[in-house]
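User: Structure tokens for both sequences below?

Assistant:
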Amino acid sequence: MSLSPTTSTEANVKIPQGVCALTYTPLDVQGIINSVRDDSAGATAVFIGTTRNSFKGKVVTRLEYQAYSKLAIKTIADIVVDAATSIARSDHQTSSQTVSSLIRCAVGHRLGIVAVGEPSIVIAVSSPHRKEAFVACEFILEGIKRKAQIWKREYYEGENEDEAEWKANE
């Protein structure tokens, strides 16, 4: 699968629940975390997915990501909205409280070449309580892996780079 260069472009969207971005620029982990800060948050959960140096016994030299960006950014935003509306409120909250289970979410996903050790995805979620933050972080990650129109290509040491195959971003 080879996508045209214009298909895999930087994109970002701001929604009431947070911000989502696809970028060729290295992810600013602290900036993403700071974007979900809120004085009403009792917890901030963060997931940082990095390029690891091996896969099934092979030495990985780098990853490359491409996306159908226009659709992928909408899909990611929909997943964030889903998380904000479907994550159950904590037992810590009484029924008379009107505090949302999530305060703010931010997702950054790399495009292009991502070297070993570099972040390829960062998800940050703030919430009044830790349980919802952890649950939402995983919900968003698994949703992106299942639904977002993003593909990755793994390059292995000692293998012909022209034969590296595109695969779903799992």
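Moving on to the next sequence.
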Amino acid sequence: MDAAPQPTLDEIEGRFVGLVGGRLSRDEVDRWAARWVMQDGLGWDDLSWWALNLLYGIDLPAGAGGGYLHDDDQVQLWLAELRKRRAA
């Protein structure tokens, strides 16, 4: 791993926003999140860890029929929940 600082909650939320807005692909977001989830020795607050783990695996297929395990509506709900928890 390079010496890039671990992402902030703003950056994690930005990945959700980019995905929902179509500026980032599910594959890009999954690879980005995987990098941070798999890296040892980092300290995360509960909300950041929750959100990061939702992004890790965001590209999982639903099955042989196509689509994703978590559809676009679910991703939008997660973004809304993240924002709700941040405001609390």
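User: Anything stand out in the second?

Assistant: The CA atoms of residues 6 and 36 lie 7 Å apart.
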